[in-house]
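Question (not urgent): is this output format expected?
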Amino acid sequence: MKFNLKGTEYIELIKLLKLLHFAQSGGHAKIMVEDGEVKLNGEVEHRKRAKLRNGDVIEILGEKIFIEE
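Got this back:
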């Protein structure tokens, strides 16, 4: 799956999870990150507000999301 930043520099991790419906709410997204369910570029990511930029790859629930401009 690809996510286009649409002219912005970055998107925060929890916002992306909500926007793409991997999380039902901001609170749910935070729990997913805290529980180590999300990888950023192959490493478990624990920063809820990690800034995702062009070229980053997110892995969650068996899906890969490619961030692009």
